[in-house]
Amino acid sequence: MKSKVITDNEISIHTEAFGDPSHDPIILVMGAMSSAVWWPDDFCNDLAAADRYVIRYDHRDTGQSTSYAPGQAPYSVEDLADDIVRVLNGYDLESAHLVGMSLGGLLSRLVALKYPHRVKSLTLIASERIDETDPTLPPFDPAILEYHQQAQTLDWSDRDAVVEYQVGAWRINAGTAHPFDDELIRNIARASFDRTPNVLTTFNHTTLGGDDEILKRLDEVIVPTLIIHGTEDPALPYAHGLALKAAIQDSELLTLEGTGHELHPGDWPVIIHAIQKHTNRP
Description:
By secondary structure, the protein is α/β, with parallel strands linked by helices. The chain has nine helices and eight strands. One of its GO terms (molecular function) is triacylglycerol lipase activity.
């Protein structure tokens, strides 16, 4: 793994690359409030071993990228998407395959809509179609919101407490297809805490606004798109994956039976194989 800091217009994006730069590039875009390490090292190495050049990065207000005071984020969802373009430019890449999870899928779609010539393909994991008015799409599992209420009283300077809180959050997001991997999640949570100067800045992602109208223009997505969604996703139930597939022309759907809102090691072989196949195009 090689680290690289990309700076542009007073914005600093911390990135890490795996594999051979001569291979086809993939940029991994993680979800809200999550630094790059939530794409585990072993996942990145396995994907790189499939003859891909893999780049992950810290969103603003996570990890080692530019952060702002809690509650003072001077950027929008569109600005976070433009950070993906900054990563492309920082690596002198004309285009790349984008693999986004949850919010990362939304940001990747936004780049594909605004800059289609910069995107070779999209892979959207546990992501959603933006349409708050659709009554047929099920909401978050109430247990998730109930669990996160304890965030208001948590001591966010207490590393052990924050780590255990995050382990519990990922446990609620998990499906029944595989045993929950406490050790993996705990180790990632520790690494993420240690690389983030102030964990409270990550909550800036919960206040972001943006232009929802452009995000709804899914019929205009012209790049090849693979959708990966678990049938037991409690945060974005499986119906969201089906709605996303219906909205993006000629998209493909990989269903993960019993998987939740997670990137479980038990699913890595099928996910990596699917990404390798999907990105094996001119």
